[in-house]
């Protein structure tokens, strides 16, 4: 009885917390925030069902209540858990990777486990393989309850496939994609906690779901502060934080291997003056996209320094390797400009510098790379037109 009351109090507290998250994210339709909003709603429904089932069990200790009413609520609870895993997989396909389900046949194939376990759950009234009513009218787990866990985890794994293959591309932000937190955080831990709850009646699954959502929310807030709003690369503040870690005294050995590359768009002022600032923003987005493509195959940190300037930081680069990196980056930008059929020439000037002992702080390091870039930019403008 005391455990049930504790679970009830925890459910009410978690529901209040989810209400705060729901209110905060309700009007933002950016893909990550919108997905967070949808998941928050689903977890809230899960908490309400859990709250209702516990309230019924407490009420049944003082009043006569059919155990089948409680069994129905528990059945809905288990169905909603499986639906959350299934819907998270569909969200991954619809919002982030629409190519995952190219036709209706693929959709039906991926949906089969969900519909199979749904039938098992709702027919458990008769066969009792998922949940059943035992002694003293208590709810017990059936011999096939593990299939609920398996189906849920299967959809978690399916949801992880494409995000894990694109994790290199996210290195430009220095962070794992936000939707990976949804999958990992809302994965096996709550499900194992749910099994524990049925055994000892201590609240585990619902608090884990709620804490995970709070962690995701804080992570997204940090990303919103650390990312440049236009290009979605790291901003200048995040770059300084990243470099300052190397310039601290205990990271001296790592600092010796640093190389900083400064990138500037050629003729950016003319693009703005001739075609407008909207076209200038478009040019910045193209360059940022090229930097992302470059970072897919290279171990580096990327960010927008300001205006039309970008920075790449390499930790273990050598001289010849950096020459190849510069050539590869310039060629990549040329390909992007050609494929985009822009009405103007889009190119970059690049300068890079390796760490030297005279660089006492981040500012002197960046200034040196900027000077090398400026020399290359002067050579670009000194070339004959055409």
Please tell me about this protein's structure:
66% of the residues lie in helices and 9% in strands. The protein is α+β, with helices and mostly antiparallel strands and 386 residues long. The chain folds into 2 domains: 2-226; 236-382, Alpha-Beta Plaits, CATH 3.30.70. The strands form 2 sheets. Strands 4-5-3-6 form a 4-stranded antiparallel β-sheet, with helices on both faces. Strands 1-2 form a two-stranded antiparallel sheet. A hairpin with a 2-residue loop joins strand 4 (300-306) and strand 5. It is elongated and about 90 Å long. The termini are far apart. Mean pLDDT is 78; it is low at 163-179.
**Count the helices. How many?**
15
Number of distinct beta strands: 6
Main sheet summary: 4 strands, antiparallel
| Helix and strand element order | HHHHHEEHHHHHHEHHEEHEH
Strand order of the largest sheet: 4-5-3-6
Instruction: Return the domain count.
Output: 2
- How widely separated are the two ends? 84 Å
Q: Name the structural class.
A: alpha+beta
- What's the gyration radius in Å? 27 Å
Helix content: 55-70%
- Hey, roughly how much beta strand do the residues contain? 5-15%
Instruction: Give the CA-based shape.
Output: elongated
Structure, briefly:
The protein has 386 residues and is an alpha+beta fold.
Search tags:
alpha+beta; 66% helix
Write the layout of secondary structure elements.
Elements: H1 2-25, H2 31-60, H3 67-96, H4 104-122, H5 124-127, E1 131-133, E2 139-141, H6 146-165, H7 178-185, H8 188-200, H9 205-226, H10 236-247, H11 252-255, E3 259-265, H12 268-275, H13 277-295, E4 300-306, E5 309-314, H14 319-340, E6 348-354, H15 362-382
Antiparallel strand pairs: 1-2, 3-5, 3-6, 4-5
Helix pairs in contact: 1-2, 1-9, 2-3, 2-9, 3-4, 3-6, 6-7, 7-9, 8-9, 12-13, 13-14
